[in-house]
Design a protein that fits this description.
heterodimer; A: 10 helices; B: alpha+beta; six-stranded antiparallel beta sheet; two-stranded antiparallel sheet; 26% strand; globular
Chain lengths: 340, 224
C-alpha cells in the first residue's frame, strides 16, 4: 500500500526551460525554449521525445547525439532529474534553465546514452545493486520474468505508482522497521531470529541501506544559499555510492545525521581530523577539544526529493518514504569543509 | 567472516581489501618484473579534504601495447614493450615504442573495491598517445585471442562502459557475475581446512582469473 509521502515523491516534478544550444541552431530565427515538466524520479533522456519536436526544424543535418548541460556542466543522464536539480541548484531555480545539444557528445566525460534502453539498463542495474545490498543477493531481480521487468520499468517511466505498487512486491525487498511507530504496519509476521529469512517480505531488520551521497563542499559560511557559487565541473562534487550500516541500538534513534556522518567519518562526527594531525583519543584539555570542534566539517544542508531535511529525523522514516523506485536513497549534501 | 584474516564467504571487507591489495602489489613486484608495479592510490578526496589512507584502489597505468600485426598463439600475454635497460627504481616506468609501424595503445587498470557487492572490480581504459580513448572494438583487437573468446563465450564476464567511481570519466568495467561464488570454489580447492582463504591471497586468486580476460597473466609463484 503506497502511503501519502510516497505519492508526493512520485508526483514531484521540476519545470524545465530547455534552450537549444546555439551551435545546433541551423534556422533563423532561433527557436524559443521548450517548456517541459520533468518527473523528479525520471531521467533526462526520457524527455527527449517531448523535446525534439520543438527543435527538429532548427537542427543541422546529421545524426543526433543528445546531451544536456546546466551552466556549461554536462549533465550525467543516469542521475535522476530531481537529484540533479537538488544538487546543482543551491537556490532552486524555477523554471530550471537547461541547454540541450544534439551534436558534439562529450564522450570523454559522459558515458554514452542510446536513449531509453541505456536508461532502463541503468535502472535495472541499480535495482540489482540495491537488492544485493538489502537482501544479500539479487536473485529476486534476476528471477523476475522479462515481462514483469518490462512492466516495472514502464511503471517508473510513466510515473505510474499504482502499477509499480502491484509489481514491486515481486522483488521481495526486506524492509526497515520504522523506529517511530510502535506497531508493525504490515500484517505479515515479524522475523524474530534476525535477518536470515530474506525471502519473506515481512518487517525484517535489514542492516544495510543503499545510499548515493552527493557532496558539495564549501569553505565559508554564506548568508544566503543563493550566494553559494555553482559548480564548474563534476570534480567539485564528491560522489559516494556506498551502503549505510543501519545501527539499531536500544533507546537510541538512528537519525539521518547519523547516517550521513557514518559515510563521512573522517570529515565530520567523532573521527573528524584535519590532515597532519593525530587523532587524539583522550582529550582532557578542553581548549584543544574546542579547537578540534571548530576545525570539524559541518553539514549545512541535506536535500532529499527536494526537501530540506531536518537531520534529526529517524533514518528509517527517510528511507521508507523518500527512496527512489530503484530502492536507492539519493542524498544531496552541502558541507562546510573543516577549517585548518 | 570471522577474524578478518580469512575469507570464508568469498567476499571482502573494506579493510580486507586494503590488506589484500598491498599483498597483491608486493607479490606482483617480486614475481612479475616484466611489468611495472601496481601503486596504491588513497582516496584523498579533494572536495572533502579527506586523507583516508585506509581506503583506496590499486592502479597500473600506461601499459604500452604495440598493436601486433602478427598472430602469436603461443604467447598468450599482452605484447608489452619494456625497457630492459631501466634498472633504477623510478615511479615513471618509461616504456619505449619499439616499432613505428604500429600505433601505440596505452592501458590503465584500476582494481577498485565495491562496497555494495563486497568484492573487487576491475576498471580499465585504453587510449592513444594523443590521449584519445579507444573503443571496446579496438581494445578487443589488442587482447590475445583466448581472452576475446573468454569474453564472448562466458556467461559470467561482462564488460560495460560505466563511470569510474572516483574519477568522473567513462571507463570499462569488468564485473564477473558471482565473484564470491567462484572465489569460494578457489578456496575449497586450494586449502584443506574448508572454504577459508587467507585475505593476503584474495586478490592474487581473483586476479589469476580476472586478469586473463584482459590479457594480464600472473606467474604461478604469486599464488604461494
Amino acid at each position: 500500500m503506497a502511503n501519502e509521502a510516497v505519492k508526493y515523491v512520485w508526483e514531484g516534478a521540476i519545470p524545465l526551460q530547455i534552450h537549444l544550444h546555439k551551435s545546433d541552431v541551423a534556422s533563423h530565427p532561433s527557436p524559443p525554449p521548450a517548456l517541459v515538466l520533468a518527473p523528479r524520479i525520471g531521467y533526462l533522456p526520457l524527455l527527449i521525445p517531448h523535446i525534439k519536436p520543438y527543435f527538429k526544424d532548427s537542427l543541422p543535418p546529421g545524426e543526433d547525439s543528445i546531451w544536456f548541460d546546466y551552466k556549461g556542466v554536462p549533465l550525467k543522464w543516469y542521475i535522476p532529474t530531481g537529484v540533479l536539480f537538488d544538487l546543482l541548484c543551491a537556490e532552486p531555480e524555477r523554471p530550471w534553465n537547461l541547454t540541450v545539444h544534439f551534436r558534439g557528445y562529450p564522450s570523454n566525460i559522459l558515458i554514452p546514452c542510446e536513449g531509453e534502453d541505456s536508461v532502463k539498463w541503468n535502472f535495472v542495474n541499480s535495482l540489482k545493486e540495491a537488492q544485493y545490498i538489502i537482501n544479500g543477493n539479487c536473485k529476486n531481480v534476476m528471477n523476475m520474468s522479462q515481462s514483469d521487468q518490462e512492466d516495472l520499468w514502464t511503471s517508473v517511466m510513466n510515473g505510474d505508482l499504482d502499477a509499480y505498487t502491484k509489481l514491486s512486491p515481486k522483488l521481495k525487498m526486506a524492509t526497515i522497521e520504522d523506529e517511530f511507530s510502535r506497531k508493525a504496519s504490515l500484517s505479515s509476521p515479524q522475523s524474530r531470529q534476525g535477518a536470515t529469512e530474506m525471502d519473506v517480505a515481512g518487517q525484517i531488520k535489514t542492516a544495510r541501506v543503499p545510499v548515493r551521497l552527493y557532496v558539495r563542499s564549501i569553505n565559508q559560511d554564506f548568508e544566503n544559499i543563493e550566494d553559494v557559487p555553482g559548480i564548474d565541473t563534476w570534480d567539485d562534487i564528491s560522489y559516494l555510492n556506498r551502503p549505510v550500516e543501519f545501527l539499531r541500538e536500544e533507546g537510541k534513534c538512528f537519525t539521518l545525521r547519523n547516517a550521513i556522518e557514518s559515510l563521512l567519518p573522517e570529515f565530520i562526527g567523532d573521527r573528524a581530523q584535519t590532515s597532519g594531525e593525530e587523532r587524539s583519543r583522550d582529550d582532557d584539555n578542553t581548549e584543544e577539544a574546542d579547537g578540534l570542534l571548530r576545525e570539524m566539517g559541518e553539514i549545512k544542508l541535506a536535500r532529499i526529493q527536494g526537501i530540506e531535511m531536518k537531520l534529526e529525523i529517524p533514518f528509517s522514516w527517510v528511507v521508507n518514504n523518500l527512496m527512489n523506485p530503484e530502492f536507492y536513497l539519493h542524498i544531496s549534501v552541502l558541507v562546510k569543509a573543516p577549517q585548518r | 567472516m570471522n577474524s578478518g584474516r580469512e575469507v570464508s564467504d568469498g567476499r571482502l571487507t573494506v579493510e580486507g581489501f586494503s590488506v589484500a591489495a598491498r599483498a597483491f602489489a608486493d607479490k606482483w613486484k617480486i614475481h612479475n618484473q616484466s611489468f611495472p608495479p601496481w601503486s596504491w592510490v588513497p582516496l584523498i578526496n579533494r572536495t572533502l579534504h579527506l586523507s583516508n589512507q585506509e581506503e583506496g584502489y590499486l592502479s597500473l597505468e600506461e601499459i604500452l601495447i604495440l598493436s601486433s600485426l602478427e598472430e602469436s598463439p603461443e604467447d598468450e600475454s599482452l605484447n608489452v614493450a619494456t625497457d630492459c635497460l631501466e634498472k633504477e627504481e623510478s615511479v615513471d616506468h618509461t616504456i619505449l615504442v619499439q616499432n613505428q609501424e604500429n600505433e601505440a595503445h596505452y592501458y590503465d587498470f584500476h582494481i577498485v573495491y565495491s562496497s555494495s557487492y563486497k568484492v573487487p572490480v576491475l576498471y580499465f581504459r585504453g587510449y592513444c598517445s594523443g590521449g584519445q580513448p579507444l573503443s571496446l572494438d579496438v581494445i578487443k583487437k589488442d587482447l590475445p585471442s583466448c581472452s576475446v573468446s573468454l569474453l564472448h563465450e562466458s556467461k559470467w564476464t561482462f564488460i560495460t562502459q560505466e563511470e569510474h567511481p572516483y574519477l568522473n570519466r567513462p571507463w570499462f568495467k569488468l564485473h564477473p557475475c558471482g565473484t564470491e561464488d567462484w572465489i569460494k570454489l578457489l578456496s575449497q580447492s586450494s586449502i584443506s581446512t574448508g572454504c577459508q582463504m587467507p585475505v593476503d591471497l584474495y586478490l592474487v586468486s581473483w586476479f589469476s582469473v580476472v586478469g586473463q580476460v584482459v590479457g594480464l597473466r600472473i606467474p604461478l609463484e604469486m599464488l604461494n
